[in-house]
Each structure stands twice: as C-alpha cells, then as structure tokens.
Design goal:
It is built from four helices and four strands. It is of the alpha+beta class. It folds into two domains: 1-54, no CATH class; 56-125 and 159-170, no CATH class. The strands form two sheets. Strands 1-2 form a two-stranded antiparallel sheet. It starts with 15 loop residues before the first helix and ends with a helix.
C-alpha cells in the first residue's frame, strides 16, 4: 500500500469491502484449521464510484435498504445462503411489500456464450434490437442531449425522520 510522505497509511485509499474480505478470509482460514468451517470463500467486490457520492437517501431508500438487509439476515439465519433477497410491490407502503428469497440458480442459466464454457452459468441477458421503439426513442433524444444540457439537479432529497410515521408503517 502506498503511504503518505510521513509514513502513515492513506486511509482514504483503502477499499472497505476488500479490507473486510481480507479479514473474513483470515478468520475462515483459522476456523478451517480448527475444523469449525469447511466451506469455500471467494468474495467479489464492486467499486461504486460516482454512485457512492449520490444524494442523501429518501425514506424509500432507507426502508428498502433496511428491508433487504434484514431479509438477507433472515435468509442466512435459516441457512438459505444460495438466495438473493426479493422485494416486490415496492410502489405500495412498506407494510404491503412482499419480501422473500429467490434461489440464485433461478437468476442464471447454462448458456454457451463467447468466452464461457458450455457448463458455465451466466446471468441471462437480453439482446438489444436497434429497431425497437425503446432504442429509437433513445436515439431521437441523443442529438438534443449532445447540444442541450437537460440535466436538472434539484439538490439532495431532504431526509426527515418521524417516529410516529415509522410506527404506522411497521
């Protein structure tokens, strides 16, 4: 790791998810040596870049984030580690959301693709039709967007916490 001139570690340059993965790997190796763990650990991390510097969360963002986090914990607690959290009916109030788990294998398929073996599982993708209405609509706007700045930033969403509202949602 590169250090500051005076020798201290550049904390801002440490990728948190990689640091956590590093320590989890050490812990799991120790558990494996004691015979308390027999699984495999192959973390995949992602750098969010600009997404990490977006506006403050709305109440929806907070509700969805805590719902998916809690549901992930429940799935893990129940031994369902091969599942992804699913939250449906998100246009309704949070108490009406339908939360569950989807087997990760339902999200992938064996599909021969260039660069993959026949037995490799890949996330299903859709081909883009250059004649589709959606693409033609996008294409019709591209010229305008090239010359006119249509982006409007109203500022960050103001997050207000209201205990009474929270009790009504739950």
């Amino acid at each position: 790791m590169n250090r500051e001139v005076e020798g201290s570690i550049k904390l801002a340059a440490i990728e948190t998810e990689k640091l956590i993965s590093f320590f989890v790997d050490i812990e799991l190796k120790e558990r494996k040596a004691r015979g308390a763990y027999s699984g495999a650990f192959a973390p995949v991390s992602h750098f969010f870049g600009y997404q990490g510097r977006s506006g403050h969360p709305s109440m929806f963002d907070c509700s969805l984030g805590s719902t998916t986090g809690f549901a992930a914990g429940v799935l893990i607690e129940q031994g369902l580690t091969g599942a992804a959290v699913s939250v449906r009916q998100c246009t309704q109030q949070p108490r009406q959301w339908r939360v569950g788990g989807v087997p990760i294998l339902a999200l992938v398929r064996s599909h021969p693709k260039q660069g993959f073996k026949r037995t490799d599982l890949v996330v299903r993708s859709e081909d883009l039709s250059l004649t589709s209405i959606q693409f033609q609509t996008l294409k019709s706007k591209m010229r305008q967007w090239k010359w006119v700045d249509s982006y409007v930033n109203p500022g960050p969403i103001q997050f207000a916490h209201n205990d009474e509202e929270d009790r009504q949602i739950a």
